[in-house]
Design brief:
The protein is mainly α. It is about 65% helix and about 5% strand.
Length: about 180
């Protein structure tokens, strides 16, 4: 099946299930989502600097082994998710579902040549940080977030945190440009 048809069918199903809906009041929230995205991204950077600084760890009373890479991943992902909510809200679309959000971006922006697919792929990649081979199976960022937050056996590497921070910066920058175009 053609991928655009697959996206269209998924979005129509999400609309039927009221997971994606049109909400004329949603536009009023767009700037708040954008502010929250920027805030989450700054928190991610703050955590990165703190977790890599022996001085900061010492001031806070943590031992040198303390690392918060899992929280960098969480806050970075949520920055991406919030900026995606901002652009959807700017066109009065409500979609507060992690699995449906990439489809909504594809349907409302990629398929209309307003956004490049690579940015939706960045969102999905960072939803699915657990295992790159499982990108097609793991559609929900919540699964990654839960794994990162609660699985004490899962070791989140500095490289993964660094990658998602870089991806998040690119994603936010592109979404802000899209937001500006839509808001004119």
């Amino acid at each position: 099946m053609d991928y655009n048809k697959e996206v269209t069918l998924k979005v129509k199903k999400y609309i039927d299930l009221e997971i994606i809906s049109e909400d004329k009041s949603r536009n009023k929230l767009a700037k708040n989502y954008l502010t929250k995205a920027r805030h989450n991204f700054l928190v991610s950077k703050f955590i990165e600097k703190g977790t890599d600084s022996k001085e900061v760890l010492e001031i806070l009373g943590f031992d040198d082994e303390f690392k918060a890479y899992d929280w960098i991943i969480n806050t970075s992902y949520y920055a991406m998710y919030m900026v995606a909510q901002a652009v959807l809200a700017s066109i009065n679309i409500k979609c507060e579902n992690h699995t449906a959000t990439p489809y909504a971006l594809e349907y409302y922006f990629v398929m209309k040549d307003k956004l490049e697919q690579e940015f939706v792929d960045l969102l999905r990649k960072n939803q699915d940080l657990i295992d790159k081979d499982d990108v097609d199976k793991l559609r929900s960022g919540k699964e990654t977030r839960i794994k990162a937050q609660y699985d004490v056996l899962e070791s989140m590497e500095k490289e993964m945190a660094s990658t998602i921070l870089e991806d998040t910066g690119k994603f936010i920058e592109r979404m802000e440009k899209l937001f500006e175009v839509i808001s004119k």
